[in-house]
């Protein structure tokens, strides 16, 4: 070989730049250079460089003594790249080693002559072994590593021997230290000889360690093996041992250029060491020994260093080489060389690369890469703008394919449209070996959608996709779907809760729990539960759903969105469990959604869910028989309400009866209690807790509609007398204020049924009454309210927490999952998810919904009990008026005492309406009005339902007091009295819907008005003349009215108001006479019994 000019690392850095030189040195140290061919002049090199064990890149380098005159590489950069730098380092290493061993130069007259001359010279050698003495724990360890396909390198490390027999942390040791420093105790004499030999023999040393080659290398290998401290690649591997000879076969090996090299071939586990004679290393058995070549060792060494035979070598040279070879060594093959032109097929390669971390840089752990390649009749090559032919080796044929640059450019343009960015232009480019054009996406989150939509479009355009096993975004397609739903046994709410699993079978037969996978997905991307995300998912035909192992399942977008929506509180919960527990309504919605999807899902659900399905549609609940003892004809919607409550009781569930005011919630509840009694289930009493103002309504309606029920009203100072008799009653009535006082008694009783009327009273779960009512023991619970939510969703949660604790989660999680997203963010998806849970257990019918079942006019009496100071005032006024009337009758007779009687009755009625109406009583000292409190409870609920209300009173002063309350509560109203001059303005304002309330006095509005916008009439105080009362009601209920009208009469219980109503039924003419006595009413209309009744005391 001609003498080569010197080369230094400083020159390499100068020629290609420091950064590129550093990258090239790394490739060199990894042993990535193959087929290193140095020309005979020693000033140019042709080599191939491997990047990530892929198709080799071809590199050509030429240089003068001081300059790099030419460089070319088949990578996208083309020249002065890190691949060129790697070849320069290999070249420098060859110069330092004294000869080039990676690959011999092609056969020519000069090179071949060298080889024939070397056949004359042969050598041989060996070395002794030794052992460490006791007490020395540090060890010198020998590490052998492969360097490319043909070389083996030796490294030295030191490590401490551990008690376990293993080694501690390894520290590299430089053999050159033995020449410069004193010898450490743990370096034995045998080690010292090895170290000195490799440190002084330049033919063995290199930048990557020490070559094991030739006679010298074999001698070192033998001595290293004899120490018992030689390891393959890693000190923690088993120590290598010397073994017997193994047979090697002489074969000619082709490189990527079509050049032939003579080599020994053994099994895949055996690596050939180019010593003289050659040895093998069994990398799995950790053994090493000589190779039986069939030739003398010196001949074998010369054969292994034989120059390569070029593709286009003359037949004469091949014949000459074959003739010179020893017996048993085959000659080189005569190859055919063809030129072909075919249409390439575009190929997309996808893989994930782990990135090295850079000091001072924020580098991602992984980068997902796409490469564009072309398949030329089985020969694959990366896209490149260089039109150089592609060479393929097919047996004894070498084929050069001419690149079709038009086809490649067309494919590249389609590739660019797919949204990929050149990796060479990205910040991470310096971390890659550009063996091919590389592309990526600028955001990792885009990959799932790219694989689902862009990749298939490339396939439709003729691209073939090759997806590496390590690629992080592989798309899977399901071959089967199975939904299983079963009732959950045990635990809180077991009768209402169930378990669901959606199993997907993948193309490889693996089964995956999709619901669990979706939970993990949402856990990493909680924004998926937002309104916008769910809407986008629903619009997509397919979405990429991440599976536990990192693959992506192509799943229908609408089905995925519905599952997320119906199970929103499960996925958004802060308790991550393996068990997916859902309420029956959620499971029903999930089943319906999946069954209606385009995916052929096999659904298996238990009989329990089929039974629970009736909850989702009240019309499917079996209609129960009306109790025989009910003295009322239930309308269809009321019978449906009764059947619903019966079904809830059967399923051991609770619910909220939330019908509009006036639709008969009380009679439905009474029918439910009566049904329980008649069917023999009322083994313990039913308890109704209601506001004080409704106690007597319940008692009166129970007496009217369910007279067979024995009723106890737990109210008043003597209520404790009946505490030991609770079990003897069917129905016990008490009030919210008395709950705390009587709690010790009520909590000891087992109730068959517990009903909370006006259940919004427990809307504050921290209030004492709310906490106490949760401690009562009942088999079945019902809430009744026309306004289940007045201010916020927390009020609704409080009622459900009473009915079915835990069904809507605890208060903190309910607020986090539903209340804040719905009330603050307007999250429709959360609202839908909550509605799914609520709908089966909250029965609400508005008057508009049941309008066809309602009569044109429904009249209801609201009884109010007056208590405390108002009761005392009434009794005081009644006694005084009774005495005054009796004195007048005694002195003038009844006929002449009518004015006295009417004035007495007026004062008693004023006390019933509001004590402030009574002359002589200061407003500040007057006791509160129970009737006004009842009105102020009713009006907000009515107005919230959208009702238009006419409120009549014969006392204009009473209307003024009500007016003040409306202003205070910011309720819009208009008023019409005898003092109103402009009557049209308030009438039009009410009729046009500007205000919901019309306050009207008897004289001003009792007749002549047409107020068909109204659907509710309230008679604040009863009118003794039923005809006049009916005329006032007809202001709303008249021709042109298209809505049912509800009429409420507010009556104070036990007072003169209630007595007048009784007289209206018995003696309508007498009642009229009370009002029209001045117009000729006769004495015969009165009787002493009537007089005594009107002035009778409160009971």
UniProtKB/TrEMBL annotation:
Helicase ATP-binding domain mapped to chain residues: 646-806
Domain SWIM-type, first and last residues per copy: 57-92
Record flagged with keyword Phosphoprotein: no
InterPro entries: Helicase_ATP-bd, Helicase_C-like, P-loop_NTPase, SNF2-like_sf, SNF2/RAD54-like_C, SNF2_N, Znf_SWIM
Spans through the membrane: none
Name under which the protein is recorded: Superfamily II DNA or RNA helicase, SNF2 family
Superkingdom of origin: Bacteria
Domain Helicase C-terminal, residue spans: 931-1081
PROSITE patterns for this protein: HELICASE_ATP_BIND_1, HELICASE_CTER, ZF_SWIM
GO MF annotation terms: ATP binding; helicase activity; hydrolase activity; zinc ion binding
Source organism per UniProt: Mariprofundus aestuarium
Keyword annotations from UniProtKB, A to Z: ATP-binding, Helicase, Hydrolase, Metal-binding, Nucleotide-binding, Zinc, Zinc-finger
UniProt keyword Hydrolase present: yes
A Pfam family reported for this protein in Swiss-Prot or TrEMBL: Helicase_C
């Amino acid at each position: 070989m001609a003498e080569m000019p010197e080369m230094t690392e400083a020159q390499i850095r100068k020629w290609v730049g420091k950064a590129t030189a550093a990258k090239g040195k790394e490739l060199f140290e990894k042993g990535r250079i193959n087929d290193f061919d140095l020309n005979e002049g020693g000033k140019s090199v042709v080599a191939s460089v491997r990047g990530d064990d892929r198709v080799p890149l071809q590199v050509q380098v030429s240089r003068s003594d001081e300059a790099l005159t030419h460089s070319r590489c088949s990578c996208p950069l083309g020249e002065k790249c890190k691949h060129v730098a790697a070849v320069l380092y290999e070249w420098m290493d060859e110069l330092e080693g004294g000869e080039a061993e990676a690959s011999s130069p092609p056969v020519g007259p000069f090179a071949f002559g060298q080889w024939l001359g070397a056949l004359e010279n042969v050598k041989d050698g060996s070395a002794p072994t030794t052992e460490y003495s006791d007490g020395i724990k540090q060890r010198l360890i020998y590490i052998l590593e492969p360097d490319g396909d043909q070389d083996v390198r030796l490294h030295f490390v030191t490590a401490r021997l551990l008690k376990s027999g293993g080694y501690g942390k390894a520290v590299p040791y430089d053999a050159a230290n033995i020449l410069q420093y004193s010898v450490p105790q743990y370096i034995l004499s045998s080690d010292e000889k090895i170290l000195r030999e490799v440190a002084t023999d330049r033919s063995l040393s290199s930048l990557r360690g020490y070559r094991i080659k030739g006679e010298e290398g074999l001698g070192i290998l033998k001595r290293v093996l004899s120490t018992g401290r030689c390891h393959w690649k890693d000190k923690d591997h088993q120590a290598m041992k010397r073994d017997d000879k193994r047979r090697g076969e002489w074969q000619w090996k082709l490189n990527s250029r079509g050049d032939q090299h003579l080599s020994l071939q053994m099994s895949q586990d055996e690596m050939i060491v180019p010593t003289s004679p050659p040895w093998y290393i069994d990398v799995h058995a950790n053994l090493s020994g000589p190779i039986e070549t069939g030739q003398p060792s010196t001949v074998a060494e010369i054969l292994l260093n034989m120059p390569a035979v070029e593709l286009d070598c003359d037949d004469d040279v091949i014949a000459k080489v074959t003739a010179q070879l020893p017996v048993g060594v085959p000659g080189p093959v005569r190859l055919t060389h063809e030129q072909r032109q075919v249409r390439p097929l575009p190929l997309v390669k996808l893989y994930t690369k782990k990135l090295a971390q850079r000091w001072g840089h924020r580098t991602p752990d992984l980068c997902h890469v796409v490469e564009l390649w072309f398949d030329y009749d089985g020969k694959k090559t990366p896209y490149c703008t260089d039109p150089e032919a592609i060479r393929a080796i097919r047996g004894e044929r070498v084929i050069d394919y001419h690149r079709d640059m038009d086809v490649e450019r067309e494919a590249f343009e389609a590739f660019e449209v797919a949204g990929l960015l050149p990796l060479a232009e990205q910040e991470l480019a310096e971390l890659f070996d550009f063996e091919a054009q590389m592309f990526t996406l600028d955001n990792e989150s885009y990959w799932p959608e790219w694989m689902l939509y862009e990749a298939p479009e490339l396939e439709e355009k003729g691209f073939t996709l090759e997806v590496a096993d390590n690629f992080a975004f592989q798309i899977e397609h399901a071959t089967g779907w199975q939904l299983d739903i079963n009732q959950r046994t045990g635990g809180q709410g077991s009768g209402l809760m169930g378990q669901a699993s959606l199993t997907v079978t993948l193309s490889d037969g693996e089964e995956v729990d999709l619901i669990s996978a979706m939970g993990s997905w949402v856990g990493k991307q909680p924004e998926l539960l937002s309104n916008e995300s769910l809407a986008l998912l629903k619009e997509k035909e397919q979405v990429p759903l991440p599976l536990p192992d990192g693959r992506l399942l192509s799943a229908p977008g609408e089905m995925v969105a519905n599952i997320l929506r119906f199970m929103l509180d499960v996925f958004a919960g802060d308790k991550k469990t393996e068990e997916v527990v859902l309420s029956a309504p959620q499971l029903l919605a999930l089943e319906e959604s999946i069954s209606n999807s385009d995916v052929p899902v096999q659904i298996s659900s238990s009989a329990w869910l089929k039974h629970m399905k009736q909850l989702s549609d009240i019309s499917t609940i079996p209609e129960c028989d009306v109790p025989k003892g009910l003295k009322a004809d239930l309308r269809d919607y009321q019978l449906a309400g009764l059947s619903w409550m019966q079904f809830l009781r059967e399923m051991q569930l609770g619910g909220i009866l939330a019908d509009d005011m006036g639709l008969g919630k009380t009679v439905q509840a009474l029918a439910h209690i009566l049904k329980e009694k008649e069917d023999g289930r009322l083994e313990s009493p039913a308890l109704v807790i209601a506001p004080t103002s409704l106690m007597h309504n319940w008692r009166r309606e129970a007496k009217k509609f369910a007279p067979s029920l024995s009723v106890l009203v737990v109210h008043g100072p003597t209520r404790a007398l009946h505490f030991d008799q609770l079990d003897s009653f069917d129905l016990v009535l008490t009030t919210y204020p008395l709950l705390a006082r009587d709690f010790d008694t009520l909590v000891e009783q087992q109730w068959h049924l517990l009903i909370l009327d006006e259940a919004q009273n427990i809307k504050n779960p921290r209030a004492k009454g709310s906490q106490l009512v949760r401690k009562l023991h009942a088999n079945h619970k019902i809430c009744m309210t026309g306004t289940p939510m007045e201010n916020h969703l927390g009020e609704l949660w409080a009622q459900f927490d009473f009915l079915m604790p835990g069904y809507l989660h605890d208060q903190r999680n309910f607020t986090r999952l539903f209340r804040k997203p719905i009330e603050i963010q307007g999250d429709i998806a959360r609202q839908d998810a909550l509605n799914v849970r609520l709908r089966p257990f909250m029965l609400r019918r508005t008057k508009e919904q049941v309008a066809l079942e309602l009569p044109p006019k429904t009249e209801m009496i609201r009884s109010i009990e007056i208590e405390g100071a108002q009761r005392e005032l009434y009794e005081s006024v009644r006694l005084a008026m009774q005495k005054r009337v009796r004195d007048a009758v005694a002195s003038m007779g009844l006929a002449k005492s009518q004015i006295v009687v009417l004035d007495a009755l007026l004062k008693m009625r004023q006390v019933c309406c509001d004590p402030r109406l009574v002359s002589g009583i200061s407003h500040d000292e007057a006791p509160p009005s129970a009737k006004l409190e009842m009105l102020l409870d009713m009006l907000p609920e009515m107005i919230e339902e959208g009702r238009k209300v006419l409120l009549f009173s014969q006392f204009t002063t009473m209307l003024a007091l009500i007016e003040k309350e409306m202003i205070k509560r910011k309720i819009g109203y208009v008023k019409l009295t005898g003092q109103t001059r402009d009557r049209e303005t308030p009438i039009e304002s009410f009729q046009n819907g500007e205000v919901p309330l019309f306050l009207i006095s008897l004289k001003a509005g009792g007749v002549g008005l047409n107020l068909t916008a109204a659907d509710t009439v309230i008679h604040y105080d009863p009118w003794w003349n039923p005809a006049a009362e009916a005329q006032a009601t007809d202001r709303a209920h008249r021709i042109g009215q298209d809505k049912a009208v509800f009429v409420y009469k507010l009556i104070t219980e036990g007072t003169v108001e209630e007595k007048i109503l009784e007289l209206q039924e018995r003696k309508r003419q007498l009642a009229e006479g009370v009002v029209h006595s001045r117009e000729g009413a006769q004495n015969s209309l009165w009787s002493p019994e009537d007089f005594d009744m009107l002035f009778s005391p409160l009971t």
